[in-house]
Each structure stands twice: as C-alpha cells, then as structure tokens.
Amino acid sequence: MTGYREGDTICAEATPRGRGGISVVRLSGPDALRIVSALFDKPLPESGRFKFGRIIIRDLEPIPLDDAVVSLFGKPHSYTGEDVVEISTHGSPVIVAELLEALYKAGARSAAPGEFTLRAYLNGQIDLTQAEAVSDIINASSREAVQSAMHQLEGGLGRACEAIAVLVERLLVYAELELDFAEEDVELTSQQEKLRLADEAIGAANAMLAGYQQSRKLREGVKVVLTGVPNVGKSSIYNMLLGEAKAIVHKTPGTTRDVLNAKIVIGGIEFEFFDTAGLRDNPDEVEDEGIVRALQAVREADIIVDVESIDIPGFSNREHQVPVIKITNKCDIKLPEIPDSIAVSAQTGYGFEVLKAKLLDIVTEGVKLTGATINRERHYTALKRGIAALTMGRQGVVETLPGEMIAEEWREALSAFDEITGKKRVDDILITIFSKYCIGK
Question: Which helix (H) or strand (E) holds 222?
C-alpha cells in the first residue's frame, strides 16, 4: 500500500465527510495515546471506556476547539490490534479539519484508504475474507448482500477454508515425512487414509463452489435484459418496473436505439434492468448499432425477460445458460397467446407482481446463505485451483507416482486454500513435522 509504514500512528475521519450531528476521528498506532493526551483536557479513559472533555489546540496559547467524547480501545483488544482512540466531536468540517491538523502536528499521519483494516489483517485480527466482508458491508446495495457479508465477517468462510487446508496439510506432512524416510521405506499412513482425506477435502471445496453464481449476484446485483421485436412494449414494461418514465415510449417501432439501464431493489435484492433496441431483420443504420449493443447486453445478462417470446438472432441460450422469462404484454386489450408466459399489462400494472416474484425465485433458488458462501471471483479461482491440485494429487496416490510429484500437488492445493484467507503456514508445517512426527531423530 502506498505510504504504508509499519510503526506509524495513523488517523482519519471515520464518519462521512460533511456537516452532521457528530463526526468521529480515529487513531491507531503506538503513539495514539500520547498524541490524544496532548490535546485532551482530561486523563484518558481506561480501555473499553469513554470520557467527556474538551479538545485544546496548543499553539502559542491554548485554544479550546470543541467538546468531545474520547473512547479508548487498548491493544490487542481493538479493531486493528493496536491502541485505538476515537474522538467524537460536533459534525463540523471546520472542527474536523483543525483536529486532524493538530493530530498531524503531534505526530500522526493521514491513513491511506483501507489502512485500518489492513492493519487488522496484518496484526491477525481478521483474515482476508473478513477484510473483504468489511468492504462488502459498506457497499452493500441490498439486505441479502448485507446478510451474506455479515456471515463472512463472522469468519465462516475463513473457518471453512481452514478446515479444508488442515486436511491438505495432513496429506502434505505425510508426503514430506515419507520423502525424508524414503530409504527406510516408511509409510506413515495407508493409501486408503490418504484417499479419504483427499476426497473429504475435494467434497468440501466443491460444496463451497456450488452457490457461487447466486451469491455473487446477491453482492453485485442481478442483470436483467428485456428483449423482443420492436413495438411490443419493452420500454413501457421497463418504465413500469422502475416506477417512472425512464424510457421514451412511442407507437413508432424502433424508438429505443440504445441500451438503457437502471437499478431497483425487489425483495431486498438489487436488480439492474436493461431496455434494449427491438430485434428485427433489415434495421436502419442507427437501429443496427442498437441491435449490436442489445446482443452484447444479452450475452452479459443473468436473466432475460423476453417479451412475446421471439428467437434472438445471433444468440444461443444453450451457450449462454441463463434463465429466460417469457412474458406477453398488453393483456388488457388481448388474450395471452403464448404458452408458459406471464401475462402483463404495462398500462395497468397487471402481472408485474407475478413477474417480480418469478425474478426473485430464480435468484434465490437453491441459495442458502452460510458462513462458507463465496461471492468473489478471487475465491472462486483459488478454489478451482485447489480442487484441481487435490484431484491430481489423489490420482498420484492411486497410481503410486513418485512422492515428490504428489507432495507438489498437495503444496499447490494448500497454497490455493491459504490464498483465500491470506494465511501463510510454512512455519506451521515445519512445527508439525518436527514436533509430532520425528521418528527417532
């Protein structure tokens, strides 16, 4: 991180900038207590306590800045694992600016973005998955996204990865020791036990992968693309879903020439709807560009809402593997004629609750938020790499390949699972080997 130096005392405004009822300035580091003591007119409170007093700016002569509440969280029982002090003042940008300037002069420096959480990770207070969860909570756009991030912040994902890593670590320890005693032809455990450990680790990792796509959607939002031929009412449906006239509606076919998008929350989940150009043969030049953009939106969709159930040119749903909801519009003036479709009216709102319920059903089907839910590409990639290495190592055991080859696969698997949490366990492996498995050494 740019500007990061171990041993510095950092400070920053912890509340959003601007005017408000209260502002909180946070410090963390070895000199946090000394720096705040120089500005506070009362003795600092004990750890876990707070005290009311006054902040005094001491230049040529003492100048009262503001009444304040100072809270102290002594190391290691703090967010960062260091001494942390929080100063709560009135929510004035002027007061906060002067307070920060006084803290800088007393020896603190401005914290880099995310540096408090970085220190929490470096000091062992949280793992990488929990650090990511902090960001996810702050940026969550739905209730379900907050719930998923809270599970992760509680350490469930880290514990699930650690449980798999412990299994792989045992396999690696066996492999390393058997290499050390290769000349004595020592087998520390049976082939069946090695296969059992590998299968247990592979099964647990695959279970974590299962809900990735749905949980990712809960965090990032669900992309829903409206498709159909011109003049079937896609823009009217788009406007009805959003509850306002975002798209131009006109009886002339081909009114929509570009891709429009907007977000709403349905049932606690964020959906982003895309209104696209009508798909038809022989479009004019401007429409043609709109159709190109529409097809690109379709390729990136999580769900397609297809008005009047057309075949989309240049697109195969079998290749894309996304759910398609068929709807029939204008049911207020005609009877639905398309089977397995939802009848709606963009004029009266009929059928839209059914459509929204269907969208929710698709997103939440089979999703059970647990502490082991993964929702980031980084987690997904690492898990896939770990499973691949475990599978290769298992195959090596079955085929009795050289121990060096099998051990290398176990190392790769362990590295992949540790990558998710950010843990380094080389020293742990050495301790295990030399303290528990040293035979006559």
Answer: strand 222-227
Residue pair 8/29 in contact (Cβ under 8 Å)? The answer is yes
Mean pLDDT on 236-260: 63
Burial category of 37 from C-beta neighbours within 10 Å (exposed 0-12, middle 13-18, buried 19 and up): middle
d(CA 436, CA 434): 6
For the residues 70-78, what does the mean pLDDT come to?
A: 94
Which pLDDT score, from 0 to 100, does residue 105 have?
Answer: 93
Residues 397, 301 share a domain: no
For residues 132-142, give the mean pLDDT. Answer: 80
Q: Which residues contact 406 (CB under 8 A, 6 or more apart)?
A: 175, 393, 396, 397
What's the confidence (pLDDT) of residue 264? 85
Domain shared by 337 and 380, yes or no: no
Q: Are residues 168 and 417 in contact, defined by beta-carbon separation less than 8 angstroms?
A: yes
Query: Residue 412 belongs to what H/E stretch?
Result: helix 403-421
Helix ranges (H only) for 60-190 are 93-106, 115-122, 128-139, 143-153, 156-180
Pick the last residue of a domain from 340, 364, 388.
Answer: 364
Inter-CA distances, 382 with 154, 188, 201, 208, 370, Å = 21, 29, 14, 11, 19
Lowest mean pLDDT among 175-184, 241-250, 419-428: 241-250
Domain count, the chain: 3
Shared domain for 357 and 429, answered yes or no, is no
Same domain, 164 and 186: yes
> Residue 382: what pLDDT?
92
pTM of the model: 0.69
Mean pLDDT of 55-75: 90
Domain that holds residue 174: 156-211+373-436
Whether 371 and 157 have beta carbons less than 8 Å apart is answered as yes
pLDDT confidence tier of residue 212, bands split at 50, 70 and 90: confident
**Do 324 and 399 have their domain in common?**
no
Residue with tokens 């709560």: 88
The DSSP symbol for 109 reads E
Q: Quick one: 237 and 313 in the same domain? A: yes
Q: What is the pLDDT of residues 357-378, one digit of tens each?
A: 999 888 877 556 565 678 788 8
Which tokens hold the place of 68?
A: 């304040």
Q: CATH number of the domain that 46 lies in?
A: 3.30.1360.120
Report whether the peptide linkage leading into residue 45 is cis, meaning its omega lies within 30 degrees of zero: no
CATH classification of the domain holding 310: 3.40.50.300
